[in-house]
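Milestone M4 deliverable, item 7.
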Amino acid sequence: MWIDDIIGVFSPQAAFKRKQARIAMDMMARGYEGAKTGRRIDDWITSGNSANAEISSGGNRLRERSRDLVRNNCYGNKAIEVFVCNAIGEGITAQARSKNDKLNEKIMEAWREWCQFCDADGDLDFFGLQALAARAMFESGECFIRFRDIGFSNTMRVPLQLQVLEADFLDTAKTTKGENGNVIRQGIEFDSQNRRVAYWMWPQHPGEAIVGKTSFQSVRVPADQIMHVFRKLRPGQYRGVTAFAPSIVRMRDLDGYDDAELWRKKIEACFAAFVVQNNGADGPIVGNISRKGNTAGGEPKKVEEFRPGMIEYLQPGEDVRFGNPSSDGNYESYERVQLHAIAAGLGITYEQLTGDLSQVNYSSLRAGLLEFRRLVEMLRSHVFIPKICDPIWRRFIDRALIAGVINKADYAVSWTPPKFEMVDPLKDAQADTLMMRNGTLTLKEAIARQGYDPDQQLKEIADTNKQLDADGTILDGDPRKTAKSGMVQTEPSGAQTNDNSNNSQE
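Output delivered:
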């Protein structure tokens, strides 16, 4: 502008600052709308804290409130059951994959035996511990699994057990610098390269009633004895956040709204009629006829509590008008919208959260389930298998080698998660058959989709076929003997017949 030119003659520095300010204002005007300030978003308070700072300040309260929702809110309990049943179900099973078949048999024999007695508390098997750890992670955001080395016994040839611990066992108040130079943040000890080297754990749950003389001091546990199970959502994050975090306030408000609506309905049911005095609102009640339930002083007793079907005697000059309470026609629609938002925050579908299938058809239901299953598969691949299954398998192999159960350590393993139930079994089976025929799906992959170990399943099929052939039995579903239409297959007529057929065609 010409004013800047004039100022620049006398003070170039002032003109330069004016130009800089003008450019900055122009950039703000053309920048992101979400970064602007104004009347619409002046009340939008944000934070630039790190993930760990946010968890340190609000993690404990989030965990306590999510647990309360699971205990006392029907939708909260349903949500966590949906997650655990779909992610873990009957359990993620292992299959040794070394190149030595005899070694695989020994490993699997010891593994199946160990899975039955691996719980340090003695209540669950290995698959039950998977479900317990998954439930604790969804509910509290994180949990810990501690390795417990035990002595040898007849039932435990591999001296190893597991103990699932809630997030409360971590001494999160311990944030300091250790004597060895390591840094302790929220109860987790890191070395100079920011690697976890230890966890500071309480000897018992801090919310447990202390029985006897127990020293309530956190104990240093080496990191190789602890599996920290949580979903990492931000770079640098070293603790977990509950899956209920985005929906806690909305679920609480909806619960309060339901209670208020229930009380409104109760009060409406109790108001059968209203009494109107004809002598004026402020005038005295005329007549000497006493009302039933007069006070000790003879004054008419005021009605302060209502009950269904109640009858009140009237004074002279009083009239009765029957109540006709108005209904809230928006209750169901409002409830549905809020539950949709809660389901979105939890990462599940509205139908899974509520059990309401009145608004869906086959296509929409299938589309919603496919999206949810992708989330579950991601959690299996990024959390449960690498953070729980693989470390336990490696520890088991090491302890089995030390105990002399196996003579060689081979950590090769494959994990088979439980199958997803088919929405339409016939269509899904036909799709698998078509993909196997055109080569885009192998038989082993199709078997794994059903939650079975492919090698074990194929072995059982081979053994069954041998027995059927020995007995001379032909099943309608045996593709070796019958066609797709159910007709018995015939052997090829031979090359001579084919040649004659070709000559006749010529």
